[in-house]
Automatic annotation (TrEMBL):
The lineage of its organism: Bacteria, Pseudomonadati, Bacteroidota, Bacteroidia, Bacteroidales. Residues 84-235 form the Radical SAM core domain. The keyword Cytoplasm does not apply. Belongs to the radical SAM superfamily. Anaerobic sulfatase-maturating enzyme family. Coiled coil: none annotated. Keywords: 4Fe-4S, Iron, Iron-sulfur, Metal-binding, Plasmid, S-adenosyl-L-methionine. It holds the Pfam family Radical_SAM. Its cofactor is [4Fe-4S] cluster. This is Radical SAM peptide maturase. It comes from Duncaniella dubosii. One of its GO terms (molecular function) is metal ion binding. Transmembrane segments: none annotated.
Amino acid sequence: MEIIKSAAGHNYIYDRNTSYISLSSNYSPKENENQVNPHFAKKLDYLTRHGIISQEKSENNQYRLLTKKDIDDAIINTHQIILEVTDKCNLDCYYCGYGHFYDNYDARLNRDLPLDSFKTLYNYLKNLWETSYNKGCSYLRISFYGGEPLCNFQFIHDAVMYTRNNPILNKKIVFSMTTNAVLLDKYMDFLVENNFEILISLDGDKFNDSYRTFKNGTGSFDTVISNIDKLQSTYPIFFNKNIKFNSVLHNRNSVREANHFIYSRYNKRPMTNELNVFGIAKCKRAEFLKIFHSKTSEFNSMSNEEKQVYERQSPHIIQCEKWLFSTLMKTYSVNIFDALSDNFIESLDSNRQEIPTKTCIPFSRKIFVSVNGGIFPCERIGNEFNFGNISGNELYINYDNIIERYNQLFLKYITACKTCKAKDFCSVCVVSDINGYEVCNRAKPRNIEEIISFFEANPEEIREIIKNISII
């Protein structure tokens, strides 16, 4: 346990072993140099006696490796299915993650995901939740991805109808999609009718967006803007509530430019993401670096006033999100079932063993199904791992391979994690960083004081992170 003092001068009791945090601003640990504040002492004694904190100044450096139980628990608690409904796309974006820079993906062969693959996964999860005492969270997000998902609209239509006709007991279904908006005008009525949450890819103004071209090399900007404008004018309430934007950063745009165009035109601030640095073909690295735009460098060049405006674009925001979900959310949002569960009781044990890094347990946040039926824990990683597959009515999870490969990677990080000050809010994904330390070495972590001060100064960000985390 330690006392953290924020930039505003408020004291917090913080125990990293149990992820407990509590405001104690009105009570100084000591009334003077020699006398401990009695109220503060009583509070610490109460928390210590109930195992919520430990007054020993020791760090939990005990690590364990991934087990089958971890994966089973993750699957039953997953809250999102992402479906690569097609590998076809009506654009040929220069920096595409399935394009010429990368060599860690399956060949794009103009395939469509069979509806039976979705039904098999959906029915598997439905049966799991309806027969188990653990029902997972209260909703399931079904996300459509590509390629351009609207190039296989029939799949989207049929999958939505299937879930409508086969509801999951005590589970709300939410539909979402990432789209380039080229076909948005054609299918927007259906998307609005089914209350889709839509993430539109747009890099800024016409020049900023000029890497996003059709197959013949002409820009897609005019078509996309026309479709977005049409959606906004036809369904303004839906647009305000359900539309978000994502901008990819490169040498033709910036955080400032993407935000300026999208905010001034649509009154929305986009998410901004750097180009994926993993899976780059060796022969393409020099060319890739010419168009790579560092968000960290741009953010560091901003004035303090600009940093406040673009705080959501900060390269440190992922660290803040990680810390939020392992501390504030656990401390203040635990329900009765969680408080009585083995996982929560174990989290109060200062001698518990953790898995190195804060890499997501496979399938804990999402289950991604590729167009050829491959099962992955995320749409952002390559196909170097065999996590499992869906074939017809059969679903297979390759537990042995997952456990072996993950643990090989975790073993690389144990020594570094023991001494790392950012281990509680690490943003490294070992499955992406398979070469070791590419992110770990370059990341400049915030400390606990900075993160607490950030949320104290920007409390509205807590709500925004909770709202957006499932899309990120």
